[in-house]
Amino acid sequence: MKSYLQGIITGGVLVFVILVFMGANHSKSEVGRYDLQKLQWQIIDGEGTTEFDQLVLFDTSNGNVFWKPHGKKIWIPLMRSQFRHQYDELGEMK
C-alpha cells in the first residue's frame, strides 16, 4: 500500500508540474506591440520651405493609429481599426 500511495503522489506532482510549465510561456509583455514612426515632410511655397516632423504610433495588436502633436505630451487617436476580428492567426480572411 505504501508504494501505491507513493506512485499516486508522484504521478499527481508530475502532472501538476507539467501543467505549470505549459502555462508558464504566457506573458503579458508588450514588447514589440507598438511601432513608432517619425514622419518628415516639407511644404514648399513662395516664401520658402517649411519642414514638419511628426510621431505616429501603430498598435500592432489591434491596428489602432495614434498621433503626437509637436510639443505635446498626449497621443491623439487617428484611426481605429474596424477589421481586427476578421483575420485569423495566419492572416487569412475569415
Key features?
94 residues; alpha+beta; four-stranded antiparallel beta sheet; 4 strands; 23% helix; rod-shaped
Write up what this structure looks like:
Helix content is 23%, strand content 34%. It has one domain (2-79). By secondary structure, it is α+β, with helices and mostly antiparallel strands. Residues 83-88 have low confidence and may be disordered. Strands 1-2-3-4 form a four-stranded antiparallel beta sheet, with no helix packed on it. It has one helix spanning 2-23, and strands spanning 34-45, 48-59, 65-68, 76-79. It is built from one helix and four strands; from the N terminus they run αββββ.
Chain-wise SSE layout:
Elements (H helix, E strand, L loop, with lengths): L1 H22 L10 E12 L2 E12 L5 E4 L7 E4 L15
Antiparallel strand pairs: 1-2, 2-3, 3-4
> What is the number of helices?
1
The run of helices and strands is: HEEEE
Task: Kindly give the count of domains.
Answer: 1
How far apart the termini lie comes to 56 Å
Helical percentage? 10-25%
Read across the widest sheet, the strand sequence of neighbours is 1-2-3-4
Shape: rod-shaped
Structural class: alpha+beta
Beta strands, count: 4
Mean pLDDT: 77
Oligomer: single chain
Low-pLDDT windows of residues:
83-88
Summarize the main sheet: 4 strands, antiparallel
Supply Rg. Answer: 26 Å
Strand residues, percent: 25-35%
Brief digest:
With 94 residues, the protein is an alpha+beta fold. The chain has one domain (2-79). The chain has one helix at 2-23, and strands spanning 34-45, 48-59, 65-68, 76-79.
